[in-house]
C-alpha cells in the first residue's frame, strides 16, 4: 500500500471546504488515499461515513438506505434517527436533518461516484451538500468530474499528479466571506458548465418548486408539500436562480414564464 501522508494532510487542512473531489483514472489509488484520509479522521475522533457507490445506487431508495446506515454514527441537536420503514421523501428529509444538525466534525466519503448518473440520486447528493454544516465535509472519489453542481462552489486545486492527470479539488460555498475565495479557481470543465448552465438544465424537482413559487407558496409551505426540509427548498431556489440568472424569486418566476417553463 502506498502511503500518501502529504496528500492526507492537505485534505485534512482543507477544513473550510464543503466538498473535496479526488478525480483520477482507474488505478491511481483514489480508494487507498480516501481510506488513509478516513483513518486520519478516525484517529482525530471524527465520525466517518463511507459508501462505495455502485450502479445499483442509482435507485434512490437504495442509495438512501445505504446512506442511512452509514450516517448512523452522526449525532446532532435535531438529528433523530429515521423511523423504521421510512422511505422516499421521509427518509431523505430525516437524513438531511441529521446531517444539517450534526455538531461534531465528520466526513462523508463516497467512492466510485462516476457510477452514479440518475438525476434523482444526483439531486439528493446536491441537497446533501447544501445541508452540510461547517463541521462536515463530503469527500468524493470519481474517474470523472461528478455532476454535483460544483460550478456553484468555489473550487481550488489542492494537489495533482502531473504524470497521470489525477487531480484533487477542494470546493467551498460561494456565499462565504471574500477571503474564502480570493485564491479560488474553478476547474475548466466546471467553468464551462457554469457558463452554459441554462433553464434547459432545470431538474424535475426544480420545476416543481418553480410552479409552487409561481402560485405564491413560501419556502415553508413548499417544504411541507414536498416532504423535505425548508433548507432543501432554499437549496433548490439557489440552483434555480443560478440557472435562470435571476436575482430574486419574483425575477425567477418572471423569467420562467417568459421562457415557457411555467404557465
Topology, element by element:
Blueprint: H1 5-13, E1 19-23, H2 30-43, E2 47-52, H3 60-70, H4 88-100, E3 106-111, H5 119-131, E4 136-142, E5 153-161, E6 166-173, H6 188-196, H7 204-214, H8 219-226, H9 230-244, H10 249-258
Parallel strand pairs: 1-4, 2-3, 3-4
Antiparallel strand pairs: 1-6, 5-6
Helix and strand sequence: HEHEHHEHEEEHHHHH
What is the CATH level 1 assignment of the largest domain? Alpha Beta
Total discrete domains: 2
Going by CATH, the architecture of the largest domain would be 3-Layer(aba) Sandwich
Describe the oligomeric state of these chains in a short phrase.
single chain
Q: By helix and strand content, what is the structural category? A: alpha/beta
* Count of discrete alpha- or pi-helical segments spanning 4 or more residues: 10
Indicate the CATH topology of the largest domain.
Rossmann fold
Query: Residue-averaged pLDDT, rounded?
Result: 77
Helix fraction, binned, reads: 40-55%
Order of strands in the sheet with the most strands?
Answer: 2-3-4-1-6-5
- The number of distinct β-strands equals 6
DSSP strand content? 15-25%
Distance between the termini: 58 Å
Overall outline:
elongated
Q: Characterize the biggest β-sheet.
A: 6 strands, mixed
Sequence stretches where pLDDT stays below 50 over 5 or more residues = 76-80, 161-165, 174-198
**Rg over CA atoms:** 18 Å
Amino acid at each position: 500500500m502506498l502511503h500518501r501522508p502529504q496528500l492526507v494532510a492537505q485534505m485534512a487542512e482543507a477544513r473550510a471546504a464543503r466538498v473535496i473531489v479526488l478525480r483520477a483514472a482507474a488505478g491511481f489509488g483514489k480508494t487507498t488515499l480516501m481510506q488513509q484520509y478516513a483513518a486520519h479522521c478516525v484517529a482525530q475522533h471524527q465520525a466517518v461515513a463511507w459508501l462505495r457507490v455502485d450502479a445499483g445506487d442509482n435507485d434512490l431508495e437504495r442509495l438512501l438506505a445505504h446512506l442511512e446506515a452509514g450516517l448512523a454514527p452522526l449525532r446532532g441537536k435535531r438529528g433523530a434517527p429515521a423511523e423504521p420503514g421510512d422511505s422516499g421523501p421521509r427518509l431523505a428529509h430525516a437524513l438531511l436533518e441529521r446531517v444539517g444538525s450534526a455538531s461534531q466534525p465528520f466526513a462523508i466519503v463516497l467512492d466510485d461516484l462516476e457510477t452514479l448518473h440518475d438525476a434523482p440520486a444526483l439531486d439528493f447528493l446536491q441537497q446533501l451538500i447544501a445541508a452540510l454544516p461547517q463541521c462536515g465535509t463530503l469527500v468524493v472519489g470519481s474517474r470523472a468530474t461528478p455532476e454535483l453542481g460544483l460550478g456553484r462552489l468555489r473550487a481550488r486545486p489542492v494537489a495533482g499528479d502531473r504524470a497521470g492527470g489525477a487531480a484533487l479539488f477542494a470546493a467551498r460555498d460561494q456565499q462565504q466571506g471574500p477571503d474564502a475565495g480570493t485564491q479560488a479557481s474553478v476547474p475548466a470543465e466546471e467553468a464551462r458548465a457554469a457558463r452554459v448552465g441554462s433553464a434547459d438544465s432545470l431538474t424535475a424537482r426544480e420545476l416543481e418548486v418553480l410552479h409552487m413559487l409561481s402560485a405564491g407558496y413560501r419556502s415553508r409551505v413548499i417544504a411541507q408539500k414536498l416532504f423535505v426540509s425548508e433548507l432543501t427548498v432554499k437549496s433548490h431556489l439557489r440552483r434555480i436562480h443560478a440557472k435562470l440568472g435571476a436575482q430574486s424569486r419574483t425575477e425567477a418566476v418572471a423569467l420562467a414564464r417568459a421562457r415557457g417553463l411555467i404557465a
